[in-house]
Write a structure and sequence with these properties.
alpha+beta; 27 helices; globular
């Protein structure tokens, strides 16, 4: 035997490949491939069959099919067209592209899905869903293999990893789209830190930490990424002691702790710095100007906070807990929280278990919001929390803490762990029975309005079935001797699969799957106006943009020439002037620089004109003709990053008609170039590139000397080939915008354009400027309009500022996919000269086949006030009201 082993070793040293070893490697590769297929493809389809892309008619509802997908298409349409987007012209009125963080411009998963066949022909939603399901399953597989490294049996490792990855918190983050990448990034980072603590050989261990932290940092949902890094920090603090409590590693010394914590922090920081092209412009350009999310009040941060009972119901009766903070899933969560009951059996719990338990209790108290002082203390001390809302979202960190707790119960050959499981299970069953008994009384407050039982029409058998499965699973887990061979653990896995399948299938909003916006639709929209944009998200508006939309509106024109400039000393004065009179040749300019008008050139009597010569999302070039020195008024918000040049000479941009871009232009023909520069993006790319080069140098240290030159040459060649591509992306490729303006263009022919408007009420929504009355007279037929609350006789009234002769009225009704009653007939249109006595003009009894209808009066009618009234109870929702004198 000794000689055979020596001979085999000699053959291996001589380069011969042992057939048995090769066969083992082949079998291992086959088993790894099958495991990947099972975890990444089969298991998500089993747990979420209603979400399977391309096949299921349903998808996640509310946010998922709207915001994240639309933002991604907007950003990648620009990128695939040849321009790296620094600015999003139509996003919340136009602002830095970093505001569209959920579009995931810097995430590898987004770049992958946008290359898939069919993505740009209406299947963007399907491919995103497919990629996220695969990423979720792959993350489960990574966690499973990590637990196997910790010497857990197959059954116990699968039970623990399944309990950690799949829960209602993950489902709610899936509903937000990009937030799911924060969830998978959080779990991957915890696994990478665990492998680093196990001493995985370099460079793999550190580079996995870098890759996972980069995945988390660029996930696109900053609040979830913030909690993800906090959870990973908790795990890093506990990990060395946790491994020691499991008997995997000896108790760490102070030097070992310093090395691990220093390495974990350093490599995680490298991943975060590698993501600087994402977060630096977000922090420098978006956050300082944002008005909807940054620096909000304490009461605002408590939005959608569940009651203390509702938070605990995520552990006991998860269908009664608010979805915004619901983390319900495996009964092992309740088991982990009941672990201190093992002290009744005389079991001494390790300090790391107590630390994890107190951390989990602290997170639960934090999620209860104002009901405990924990959230107020954290809100006033921790950075960035003043710009976040919904305390329940912090429960993202709980599954990993519960993993630390419950894994201690599944240690091999431990009498203490077996006794601990039985006592913890008994305590958990007792809490379940008490909660059900209390719920049967009348004194229990109703569940939150956004609990699954309120959102969905649940079958009556569902909650009793979930209760029975929970009790059965706890009993199976308690019936154990050795975790890796116990029949109870084996039976617990299928029970957990059934329980999670039922819970995830009824745990949030669902909606019918509809085709996404296609490339052809986007290209057609951008060809007419680069600001064309599909639904934006809430809370993205800048302070200037919010003021513009609340006190006025944004120009429906991309650009027009205005010769009569009225100087004002403040933007507020400009808004007052706009309400008084808005003319086609009148602009209110705030603190304009002195200008010399000079002599009119020949041909100055020609009609002013604006044409787009070149357009990307970052740059607009106009060919302008003006009869005299004028202003080019652009329908974009002023920003410090804009740079304007007229005939290649730099000029200053002034706020015009509020906070819109005004550029002085001379008489005659001129070329105006409006360019958005982003120094923060450039600095972020520089930081990321330096970190990438440093990591490449670190990795080359471990490359064999014979391959070192080849590796360096390949890296240098890749960078040399990338330079022309980067230069081209910075300049951009023309979108082929066909925009032309003359004084006869657009809504100035409407007497109602830009006039004062009021409504009987304003729909109670988070951002009222999206439904305020001025939306009906802004000349835009975009995604929003004026809308009232449901009430009797809701109306919208327009003040034409003086008595006018009216002959035609054209109305575009706002079509919304909502259960609220809209524009109930008959619609009555009336007029008034003084605003007190109204006379009828006409009435519409039947709903028109198209949302746009027009009525021509038999003869012109003199009036100042025009009122549109619906029959109640209903909402009045009008996208635009146009009034004509001819």
């Amino acid at each position: 035997m000794i000689f055979r082993r020596r001979a085999a070793r000699e053959r291996t040293e001589l380069g011969a490949v042992a057939p048995a070893g090769e066969e083992r490697r082949t079998r291992r590769r086959a088993s790894d491939a099958l495991a990947f297929l099972g975890f990444a493809l089969l298991l998500p389809a089993v747990l979420l069959p209603w979400l399977v892309p391309f096949l299921s008619p349903y998808t996640l509802g509310l946010d998922y099919p709207i915001f994240s997908i639309a933002w991604q298409e907007e950003l990648f349409f620009s990128l695939r067209s040849g321009t790296w987007p620094l600015y999003a012209p139509g996003a919340a009125g136009g602002q830095s592209a970093s505001a569209l963080s959920q579009g995931q411009l810097h995430h590898p998963l987004a770049h992958l899905v946008t290359l898939m066949p069919g993505y740009w022909t209406g299947h963007a939603l399907d491919w995103n869903t497919a990629a996220r399901l695969v990423a979720l399953g792959w993350t489960h597989g990574v966690l499973f293999r990590f637990l196997r490294r910790l010497r857990f049996g197959v059954g116990a490792a699968f039970l623990l990893s399944l309990s950690t990855v799949y829960n209602l918190r993950a489902l709610d983050m899936f509903r937000y789209g990009a937030a799911l990448e924060a969830w998978t990034g959080h779990l991957l980072l915890c696994c990478a830190l665990g492998l680093l603590a196990l001493g995985v050989r370099r460079p793999r261990g550190p580079l996995w930490v870098v890759a996972a932290s980069y995945w988390l940092a660029v996930s696109g949902q900053p609040q979830m990424a913030y909690y993800g890094f906090l959870g990973a920090a908790f795990f890093a603090l506990l990990c060395p002691f946790w491994l020691a409590s499991l008997g995997i590693r000896p108790r760490p010394t102070r030097l070992e702790l310093q090395r691990f914590w220093g390495g974990a922090f350093g490599w995680t920081l490298c991943g975060v710095l590698l993501a600087a092209p994402f977060w630096l412009p977000y922090a420098m350009e978006f956050l300082p100007e944002n008005a909807g999310r940054v620096g909000q009040s304490y009461r605002w941060s408590l939005n959608n906070t569940d009651s203390p009972l509702g938070v605990l119901d995520a552990l006991l009766l998860p269908l009664r807990s608010d979805v915004h903070g619901n983390f319900g899933g495996s009964p092992l969560y309740l088991l982990a929280l009941c672990l201190p009951a093992a002290r009744l059996a005389g079991v001494r719990l390790p300090r790391v278990v107590w630390a994890a338990w107190f951390a989990a209790v602290g997170v639960l108290l934090f999620a209860m919001g104002d009901a405990t002082p924990v959230y107020r203390l954290a809100w006033s001390t921790l950075p960035f929390l003043q710009s976040m809302r919904i305390p329940g979202r912090a429960t993202l960190v709980l599954p990993v803490l519960f993993l630390v707790l419950s894994s201690w119960l599944f240690r091999k050959s431990s009498v203490d762990s077996a006794r601990s499981v039985r006592w913890a299970c008994a305590c958990a069953l007792l809490l379940l029975l008490v909660r059900v008994a209390v719920g049967a009384t009348d004194g229990v407050p109703p569940s939150a309005p956004f609990a699954p039982e309120k959102l969905r029409d649940l079958p009556p058998w569902l909650e009793p079935t979930l209760f029975a499965l929970t009790c059965a699973l706890l009993l199976c887990v308690s019936w154990r001797d050795r975790a890796e061979r116990n029949l109870g653990v084996v039976l617990a896995n299928p029970l957990l699969l059934v329980l999670l399948g039922l819970l995830l299938g009824h745990g949030t909003w669902i909606a019918r799957r509809v085709p996404s916006t296609s490339w052809a639709q986007l290209a057609a929209a951008k060809a007419s106006d680069p600001r064309a944009y599909f639904p934006t998200g809430l809370g993205l508006y800048t302070r200037e943009g919010l003021a513009q939309l609340r006190k006025g509106f944004l120009e429906p024109y991309l650009a027009r020439v205005v010769s009569h400039a009225i100087p004002v000393t403040s933007v507020e004065e400009a808004f007052v002037g706009l309400r008084e009179e808005l003319g086609s040749d009148r602009v209110y300019v705030t603190n304009p620089p002195p200008r010399s008008r000079g002599a009119r050139p020949s041909g100055s009597g020609e009609v002013p004109r604006v044409e787009v010569a070149f357009a990307t999302c970052n740059e607009l070039v106009f060919r302008v003709r003006a009869a005299e020195p004028s202003y080019l008024l652009c329908g974009l918000f002023v920003a410090p990053n804009w740079e304007a040049r007229v005939n290649d000479a730099p000029v200053g941009i002034v706020p015009a008609n509020g906070y819109q871009v005004g550029i002085p232009v001379p008489a005659g023909e001129s070329v105006v170039r409006l360019l958005y520069r982003s120094p923060a993006s450039l600095a972020g790319v520089a930081i990321g590139l330096l970190v990438f080069l440093a990591l490449g140098g670190y990795g080359l240290r471990f490359v064999q000397r014979s391959r070192l030159r080849r590796s360096v040459f390949c890296v240098a060649l890749a960078f040399a080939a990338a330079v022309p591509l980067l230069v081209r992306l910075r300049r951009g490729t023309d979108l082929g915008v066909r925009y032309r303006w003359t004084p006869e263009s657009g809504p100035f022919t409407s007497l109602a354009y830009g006039k004062s408007a009021r409504s009987s009420s304003l729909l109670a929504v988070e951002e009222e400027h999206l439904v305020c009355p001025s939306r009906a007279v802004d000349g835009s037929l975009g995604s929003f309009g004026a809308m009232t609350n449901p009430e009797d006789a809701p109306f919208l009234e327009i003040d034409l500022r003086r008595v006018r002769r009216v002959r035609r009225v054209r109305v575009r009704e706002w079509e919304l996919g909502t259960a609220l009653p809209l524009n109930r007939r008959p619609l009555r249109v009336s007029g008034s000269v003084d605003g007190t006595v109204y006379f009828p003009l006409f009435s519409l009894a039947a709903k028109a086949a198209e949302p746009v209808w027009e009525v021509r009066l038999p003869a012109p009618v003199s009036l100042r006030f025009l009122r549109v009234t619906a029959t109640g109870p209903s909402c009045l929702a009008l996208s635009e009201v146009l009034v004509f004198s001819d």
